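Reviewers of the previous submission asked for a worked example of the structure-prediction workflow described in the proposal, so we include one complete record here. The input consisted solely of the amino acid sequence. No template or homolog information was supplied to the procedure at any stage.
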Amino acid sequence: MQIRNLPKREFYEKELKELIVTVVAAFETKTKKKVGNVIQQVKVLRDQDKTYIQPETEHLVKLSSGIAFVEFYDPEVALFAVRYLNNM
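From that input alone, the workflow returned the following structure tokens.
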């Protein structure tokens, strides 16, 4: 599943995984099915030209390009996630 219009800032895979966990919880609530681990892979694309110096560590960090990909084990959950995130 491709996700667009993410914040073009310091946005990490961890934040996206937390969002997907929320979506999976909504799926479990709506369908009354227990699905367990459904996330196979999460990848946030980075913009090579836009960088940011992290104040705490002073490391150079590449900012999000606004696009990410999430790969699911279960296609039913993936379809629910697409519909759920489109209606946010």
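Helices lie at 13-31, 75-86. We consider this example representative of the routine output the project will generate in years two and three.
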